[in-house]
Amino acid sequence: MANKNSNLGAAKSAKKDEFYTQLTDIEKELRHYKQHFRDKTVLCNCDDPFESNFFKYFVLNFNRLGLKKLIATCYTGSPIANRQLSIFDVLGVSEKTEDKPYKAVVTTVYDKTGDGGVDMFDVAELFRTGENTLTELLGDGDFRSPECLALMDEADIVVTNPPFSLFREYVATLMEHEKKFIIIGNQNAIHYKEIFPLLRGNKLWLGYGFSGNVGFFESPYEDRAVSSQHKEGMIRVSGVMWFTNLDIKKRHEEMILVRRYTPEEYPEYVNYNAIEVAKTSDIPYDYSGEMGVPITFMDKYNPDQFEIIGISSSIANPMKQYAKLGTYQAGGPNFYTTRLNESDITRGYLYHREYDRIVIRNKHPEAPKEEK
Ligand SMILES: C[S@@+](CC[C@H](N)C(=O)[O-])C[C@H]1O[C@@H](n2cnc3c(N)ncnc32)[C@H](O)[C@@H]1O
């Protein structure tokens, strides 16, 4: 058994799926969604009830949000499961077996201990008295298992930080079961061929997010928290984002565009009929054609203002533009230094390769002004 567990542990750390979200980050994001939760059943399906701050957030805000029900399930072998409190401590089950996944179902939260406030002691007490229930799962707690899928079907909204390595499959499952959700993922997911069409088709969008897209997560791995950029016991993860399909105010905010289009400042690609816009904030207000913008545009995307046409990795990979000699950094990760042909050389041009670009169109561009 010990062997099996350590192998499982090794496999898990190879995938590095165990990062635990801080309560403050959950609070910062979820305050924008309060109106969605009244009378709803919330499922946290990658969350040990006694360890996850998602469970904690919802249970402690159960009445304020007006939730109908909260369900949390955990997964076999999570290295932090049972570390603080577990089903065995709460219900006094005598046979204490590590790695036993279970589900918590909460329908009532109040000051059970009578100490004047609601905290996790009340929650434990409400499980002990059977007013809320804590039961072992039949299987391993995998979100794809029939019993967990049945819980997903029962839920209105799924909220969690799922394992990054299963992100594609996780989102596909949510889509298949037509669920509303708020989940954490990596910025790279925007490029995934399974995820980008959902963003383009307005089936999924970005939430408010972490400051600078950097998050600090509690980590059980040994290589955590070493440099001055880290916090004790935490790992710094860059490119983390919230993904959701619940309507939020941000999605309807118009980007204020301040730049005027000029052919000199916005060169066309050589291999695709669009202009290059190197910074999202430089999108011109008066250009009606297609524009290549950085991936970070997605954070500002308002479907009433822009239409998403595609992504360079699938339409012209990579989109290329001419750049004058000296305007590129030779040897950098996103630049070609290869000369093209004789005429390019005499004209002093080189190919310049861009990062992945999202191709967009302004739905309501201003009419171009005549130069005086
Ligand atoms: C990134 S951690 C996040 C944990 C927690 N949601 C949080 O944010 O603090 C992902 C969690 O998913 C669990 N997990 C991994 N594979 C899973 C699966 N197939 N089904 C359900 N949960 C899984 C891991 O054990 C881990 O606890």
How would you portray this structure in words?
There is one protein chain. With 372 residues, the chain is α/β, with parallel strands linked by helices. It has two domains: 2-252; 275-319 and 354-362, no CATH class. Helices cover 22% and strands 20% of the residues. It has eleven helices and 16 strands. The chain has helices at 2-15, 23-30, 53-60, 62-65, 87-91, 120-128, 146-154, 167-176, 196-200, 312-315, 342-347, and strands at residues 41-44, 69-73, 102-106, 133-136, 157-160, 180-186, 205-206, 214-218, 234-238, 240-244, 275-276, 290-294, 306-311, 320-324, 349-353, 357-362. The radius of gyration is 25 Å and the shape is elongated. The termini are far apart. Bound molecules: S-adenosylmethionine. S-adenosylmethionine binds at residues 17-21, 46-47, 52-54, 75, 78, 141-143, 160-163, 166.
Number of helices: 11
Bound molecules: S-adenosylmethionine
Global structural class:
alpha/beta
Task: Give the number of DSSP strands.
Answer: 16
Number of domains: 2
Placed side by side, the strands forming the largest sheet appear as 4-3-2-1-5-6-10-7
Q: What general outline do the C-alpha atoms trace?
A: elongated
